[in-house]
Backbone:
């Protein structure tokens, strides 16, 4: 990561941390949607600075709520999912996003019953639904950005 | 101050001055003076030390501002690529060293916070008020907006859109200036004067003012740096190939932003756990 990418890194960290800590919880039916997950698909445009930024943002958001060791592992799991989105961008960003949803939802399904005492089945479908809704919203934004807003030469990650 | 005017053939710039050493000395005097005053011992000596440092700083400001009009008019005549502080050189190492020193400072400060926190079974300690985070949320929004704006401004400059760059840069400065105004002009007075949370309340109060104070001072430095960058932008000193100082300032600003996110998580949200 070059020094000039530092801004992108910080902006993504800020979007994740501030939206999680500062914005009210977004509920869709029974599902809790994490707003910070929405920019996941944009990793395909902004590259590794966005991967590191979103991971750091998740870590910062985590220390704002609790310091339980298992919850602090979430950024590492998320980092793996984001890396898949990054490396999958050349053939299919959508496939990367689906992999991200599966990895993070499985982790949340395992973690939530331990940390919050949420029943396993509720944790599972809440995690999958919440993550899917957030990532799909971001993916739609990503498609709009790629097709309508950004010129081809302004997509650094896609060029590599 | 004696300055050598750079030219296209000789871009080295030398400045010999006693003022950096004197200002460092004055800063030390201020710290010792305030220590005496706050501890209530040797009040006269403390007052004299603070006054002496004020005299030194005043002397610097007087001698420096006397030369500003001459310096600025000189800068206007220098070809763009040979400007003072804007040489077409790689400033990456410089800003990396600055960020590393800042990391050490804030690393120590956060280390202190966690060391104190570990001493308590319940954190924040009982009796700590739940802080209203409305202003902190606005401050977070300000920093995010300013970070995005300055990146947009640099992006515009790289594409030769100088007017858009200047607009973005000035908007960033205005947003940045709002941050310390909200902190030192609104939130701190509200908490202190209404006796909601003071440094004497408990350890949480002490660490709150220490950490947010250090951070606020860094934001102030960032705003001053942006102000200086604005002046130079207005004088047409940046171009798509020559904008190292803007990059350096924005990197510093982003770093300050990251620290704020940690503070927001630990001090405001953390006070609710």
Residues:
């Amino acid at each position: 990561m070059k020094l000039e990418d530092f801004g992108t890194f910080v902006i993504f960290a800020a979007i994740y941390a501030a939206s999680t800590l500062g914005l009210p919880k977004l509920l869709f039916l029974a599902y809790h949607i994490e707003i910070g997950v929405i920019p996941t698909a944009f990793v395909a445009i902004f590259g590794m600075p966005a991967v590191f930024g979103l991971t750091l943002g998740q870590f910062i958001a985590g220390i704002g709520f609790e310091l339980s060791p298992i919850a602090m592992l979430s950024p590492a799991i998320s980092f793996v999912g984001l890396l898949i989105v990054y490396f999958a961008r050349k053939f299919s960003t959508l496939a990367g996003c689906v992999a991200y949803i599966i990895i993070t939802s499985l982790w949340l399904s395992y973690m939530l019953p331990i940390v919050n005492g949420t029943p396993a089945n509720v944790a599972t479908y809440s995690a999958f639904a919440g993550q899917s809704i957030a990532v799909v919203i971001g993916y739609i934004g990503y498609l709009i950005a790629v097709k309508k807003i950004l010129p081809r030469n302004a997509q650094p990650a896609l060029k590599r | 101050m004696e300055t050598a005017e750079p030219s296209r053939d000789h871009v080295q710039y030398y400045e010999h001055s006693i003022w950096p050493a004197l200002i460092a000395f004055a800063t030390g005097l201020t710290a010792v003076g305030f220590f005496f005053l706050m501890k209530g011992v040797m009040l006269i000596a403390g007052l004299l030390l603070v006054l002496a440092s004020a005299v030194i700083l005043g002397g610097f400001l007087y001698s420096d501002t006397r030369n500003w009009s001459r310096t600025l008019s000189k800068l206007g005549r220098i070809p763009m690529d040979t400007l003072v502080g804007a040489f077409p050189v790689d400033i990456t190492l410089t800003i990396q060293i600055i960020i590393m020193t800042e990391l050490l400072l804030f690393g120590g400060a956060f280390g202190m916070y966690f060391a104190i926190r570990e001493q308590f079974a319940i954190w924040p300690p009982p009796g700590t008020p739940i802080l209203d985070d409305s202003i902190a949320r606005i401050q977070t929004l300000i920093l995010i907006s300013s970070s995005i704006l300055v990146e947009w401004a640099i992006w515009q400059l790289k594409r030769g859109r100088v007017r858009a760059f200047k607009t973005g840069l000035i908007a960033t400065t205005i947003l940045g200036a709002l941050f310390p105004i909200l902190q030192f002009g609104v939130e701190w007075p509200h908490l202190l004067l209404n006796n909601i949370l003071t440094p004497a309340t408990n350890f949480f109060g002490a660490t709150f003012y220490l950490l947010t104070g250090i951070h606020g001072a860094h934001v102030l430095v960032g705003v001053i740096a942006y102000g200086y960058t604005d002046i130079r932008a207005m004088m047409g000193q940046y171009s798509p190939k020559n904008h190292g100082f803007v990059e350096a300032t924005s990197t510093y600003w982003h770093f300050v932003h990251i620290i704020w996110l940690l503070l927001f998580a630990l001090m405001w949200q953390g006070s609710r756990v």
In short: Residues 41 and 105 of chain B are 29 Å apart (CA to CA). Residues 1-12, 78-88 of chain B have pLDDT under 50 and may be disordered. The first strand of chain B starts at residue 2 and ends at 3.
